[in-house]
Design brief:
465 residues; 2 domains; globular
C-alpha cells in the first residue's frame, strides 16, 4: 500500500530524498505489473506499456511539465490540491500557500495557477499518477472485456461468412486496452468561462499540433462534449478531452489525458466523484456475481444505480445553472459598474448593450430546449436559484451536498440572511435575464438544431423536480 504524502512536508525535504521516495514507489508499481503479467491478468504488450510509465515516474512527470511550460510558461503559483474536495492549502490569513514547483511530483496533487489576458484564472491540476493496481484493473476488466466483446462481435466474419481474411483484418483494427488507457498520467485544466476553455484548446492544439513535435495532440482524436446535442449528453457532463502523445528523452511513447473544463462545472464534478465510485463498485459486483444473485437483489442494485446516476445529473445541472448565473452576473456588472455610472446610453432600443449581448451569446450554456422563461429562470421563487446564488457569492461551501435531506432548510435559512446589497445583486441578475432573454432563446434554438431528427424531447430540471 503506497503511502500518501503531504505537499507541505515534501517541499522541506532535499531533492535526493524526494527522488528516493519516488524510486520506492516505482519499485512497488513495477512489482504489481510483473505479478499481474505472471498471473496472466495482462498481456506482454500491456506489461511493456505500463513499464514505460512506472519505471521512472519522476522523469515522465518532468516531460509532462516541459510540454506545459512550452504552452503556458512558469505558473504564478503552485498550490497543494485536494482532489476530493478541490481545496488548497492556505496560511493563517486565508491566503493560498505557494509551494513552488518542487511540490509537483508523481505522488502529490498540485494546482498550477495562471492568469489569462482577460485577468481570469486558469488552473492546471496535476493529480497523483494512477497507481499500477488501478491501471491493471482497467486493462483487465473494462478494456480487456471490451476487446473480447469486439472480437466476439467480429466472429461472424469467420464462422458465418467464412471470410478468414476479413476476420483477420477486423481483428487487427480492434484497439487493445493500451490504446485506450490514456489516464495513467492526466491533467485537468480549468477556465472561468467557456471562451477560455476554447482558447486553451487552440493554444494546446497549435503548440502541440505538429505530428513531428515531441508533444503531439491530434485534434481529430479530441472529444468535445460542449458540441454535443443534449440528447447525447444525458449526464450533463461537459469537458473537452484531448490525448497528448508524448515522446520522452529515452524514446518512450506515452499518452497523457488532458481534460479542459469550466471551473464551476469542475466543482460539480468533485461532488459527483464519490457517487460515481459507488456506481462503479455496484456495476463491478453485478458483472461478477449477477448469475449467483437473486432476481430481486439484481433489480434493487440496478435501481440504486439509476438513483445515484440521477443524483449526479442533478448536481451537474445545478453546476451549469450556477455557471449561467455567473455569466449573467458579469453582464450585470458591465452595465451597473461600467456603462450606467458613465451614463452611456444602451446600443439598442430594447435597453441592451452590444458588449453584454456578445458576452452572453459567447458564454451561456444551454440547459434545456424549453422556451426560455426569464420570469422564472432566475427568480427567487426557485430553490435551485437560491442555491446557485449562495454558491456564487461564497455563502455555501463547495462541498455542500444539495441532495442531502437537510439541504432545503440550510438553503432557505442562508438565503433569508442575505444583506440588502446581496439581494440587490440577485435581483439584478434576474433583470438581466429578462432584458437579454432573446439572446438566450436564440442560443437554445441553435443548440436544438444539432439534434438528430428522431431524438426524444429533453425535459428541464424544473419539470423533473
Amino acid at each position: 500500500m503506497q503511502e500518501e504524502y503531504e505537499v507541505k512536508k515534501i517541499v522541506n525535504l532535499p531533492n535526493e530524498e524526494i527522488d528516493r521516495i519516488q524510486e520506492s514507489i516505482n519499485a512497488e508499481n513495477l512489482e504489481v505489473v510483473e505479478k499481474a503479467f505472471n498471473d496472466r491478468r495482462i498481456t506482454a504488450e500491456d506489461r511493456d506499456y505500463l513499464i514505460d510509465f512506472y519505471s521512472d515516474g519522476m522523469g515522465v512527470y518532468r516531460e509532462v511539465y516541459r510540454a506545459l511550460y512550452e504552452s503556458f510558461k512558469r505558473p504564478d503559483r503552485t498550490c497543494a490540491f485536494d482532489p476530493q474536495t478541490g481545496k488548497i492549502d492556505r496560511d493563517a490569513n486565508g491566503k493560498p500557500i505557494n509551494y513552488g514547483l518542487k511540490a509537483v511530483t508523481p505522488f502529490t496533487s498540485t494546482r498550477l495557477e495562471y492568469v489569462d489576458k482577460f485577468n481570469n484564472p486558469i488552473y492546471v491540476i496535476f493529480p497523483r499518477m494512477k497507481k499500477a493496481e488501478r491501471a491493471v484493473e482497467k486493462l483487465e476488466s473494462k478494456y480487456g472485456q471490451a476487446y473480447i466483446a469486439a472480437i466476439k462481435k467480429a466472429s461472424y466474419l469467420l464462422f458465418e461468412m467464412e471470410d478468414r481474411e476479413a476476420f483477420s483484418e477486423k481483428i487487427q483494427s480492434i484497439p487493445r486496452g493500451t490504446k485506450k488507457l490514456n489516464d495513467i498520467l492526466r491533467l485537468t485544466i480549468t477556465s472561468k468561462y467557456l471562451s477560455g476553455v476554447e482558447r486553451i484548446r487552440r493554444v494546446l492544439t497549435e503548440n502541440r499540433g505538429e505530428i513531428k513535435s515531441k508533444f503531439h495532440i491530434n485534434d481529430a482524436e479530441t472529444r468535445d462534449r460542449f458540441a454535443l446535442p443534449l440528447s447525447q449528453n444525458e449526464k450533463r457532463y461537459y469537458d473537452i478531452k484531448m490525448i497528448m502523445r508524448q515522446e520522452t528523452e529515452d524514446d518512450k511513447h506515452l499518452n497523457v489525458e488532458v481534460q479542459l473544463k469550466i471551473q464551476a462545472l469542475y466543482e460539480g464534478d468533485l461532488r459527483t466523484h464519490k457517487i460515481y465510485e459507488e456506481v462503479r463498485a455496484i456495476e463491478a459486483k453485478l458483472a461478477k456475481d449477477r448469475k449467483q444473485m437473486e432476481p430481486v437483489e439484481v433489480r434493487q442494485q440496478e435501481a440504486k444505480i439509476k438513483i445515484l446516476n440521477n443524483r449526479c445529473r442533478k448536481i451537474n445541472e445545478n453546476a451549469i445553472h450556477k455557471y449561467n448565473m455567473m455569466v449573467l452576473d458579469k453582464a450585470r456588472r458591465i452595465e451597473d459598474d461600467g456603462y450606467r455610472p458613465l451614463r452611456v446610453e444602451p446600443d439598442n432600443a430594447d435597453g441592451t448593450y452590444d458588449q453584454c449581448r456578445q458576452h452572453i451569446n459567447k458564454e451561456y450554456l444551454v440547459e434545456s430546449y424549453d422556451d426560455f422563461d426569464p420570469k422564472t429562470a432566475f427568480s427567487a421563487d426557485d430553490e435551485i436559484n437560491k442555491l446557485c446564488f449562495l454558491r456564487l457569492i461564497g455563502k455555501v461551501d463547495t462541498e455542500f451536498d444539495e441532495t442531502d435531506e437537510n439541504a432545503h432548510k440550510i438553503i432557505t435559512y442562508k438565503f433569508s440572511r442575505l444583506t440588502p446589497a446581496e439581494k440587490e445583486r440577485f435581483n439584478g441578475i434576474n433583470e438581466i435575464a429578462n432584458r437579454y432573454a432573446p439572446i438566450i432563446q436564440r442560443k437554445i434554438l441553435a443548440k436544438k438544431k444539432l439534434e438528430p431528427m428522431m431524438s426524444y424531447p429533453i425535459v428541464s430540471h424544473k419539470e423533473r423536480d
